[in-house]
Amino acid sequence: MNRTKVSLLLVFLMVFFSFCGMGTQRVKNKQYTKNAHPPVLKNIAVLPEIPDDSLAIHFLQPYSDLLKNELSTFIATIDSPFYNTFGTGNLGRLSADYMLQSATKFSQSTLGIPCHFAIGNNGGIRGNLFPGEITMKDIYEVMPFENELVIVRLGGIYVDSLIQYIAQLQGSPVAGLLVQFKKGNTQKENTPVSVMVNAGIVSTESPEPLRYLPFDPSRDYLIATNSYMVLGGDGFTMFTHAKALYYPKLLLRDVVATGLKNEYEHNKTIAHRTQLRINSLDH
């Protein structure tokens, strides 16, 4: 460690322990006891007339400039809206497509097999994309959470539970999975009647037509999802029975941004994703 780093470290430690000492002295002076009531704190109003702290602004400016530059990064141009509509939103299908593409790229290189399908949660998307230029700022607004892409190896019995749950929800963002269900008297009584699962390899550059096979409950499947759902979030408790978890170390928002960028560069447009992948026979 050079002298400059040592000096900075010493200054930091001196300031740190000085503040710690001040805090300790104040506690001693007030002679707080175990059962004493804590001091009453007053709210501090932050008003426009309070002058900016020039030192703080100077310190934060490089980080502010870096953030603005990243958020203004051009991703793609879209000519139709992508909506976050529960169950039927094409934005959910778009993000699931990119999850499947990224997961397949990872599983092919590390496991030698493609990922079968992808599923997200409706609550993980918090906005819409409208026609025009899309920047990284738009992606942050649509996906504000720090969720990671995760690939789950799940036994057929739990994949069956997953499909049952999707039918009860009457929709969830999916790719590589087609489910038709019959409505019951209540949502819990909804019953899947047709389930088809992707059996092909997904292109990492564009959404090509997939090849489907009927769901087989006797085998394992590789499923792309997110780190929130892997822990059982939003009721997806079947993922806690995973036989294996694989982490490509990618945030979902980066997956979506990269997917949009690649598709736009390859096709000069973004496909509209009009296909309903989870639907009721009553429609």
What can you see in these coordinates?
It is a single chain. By secondary structure, the chain is an alpha+beta fold. The protein has one domain (71-280): 5'-Nucleotidase, C-terminal domain (5'-nucleotidase,  domain 2). It is built from seven helices and eleven strands. It has a five-stranded mixed sheet. Strand 6 and strand 7 form a beta hairpin. The chain is globular, with a radius of gyration of 25 Å. Mean pLDDT is 86; it is low at 1-32.
Short description:
With 283 residues, this protein is an alpha+beta fold. The protein has helices spanning 3-30, 54-71, 90-110, 136-142, 156-169, 227-230, 252-267, and strands spanning 74-78, 117-119, 132-135, 149-154, 174-175, 177-182, 191-198, 212-214, 221-226, 244-246, 278-280.
Strand arrangement within the widest β-sheet reads: 5-2-9-4-10
**CATH architecture title:** Alpha-Beta Complex
Question: What best-fitting shape do the alpha-carbon axes yield?
Answer: globular
CATH class: Alpha Beta
Total domain units: 1
Largest sheet: 5 strands, mixed
Q: C-alpha Rg, in Å?
A: 25 Å
Cα separation of the termini: 69 Å
Relative strand content: 15-25%
* CATH-defined superfamily: 5'-Nucleotidase, C-terminal domain
| Class derived from helix and strand content | alpha+beta
- Summed up, the helix count is 7
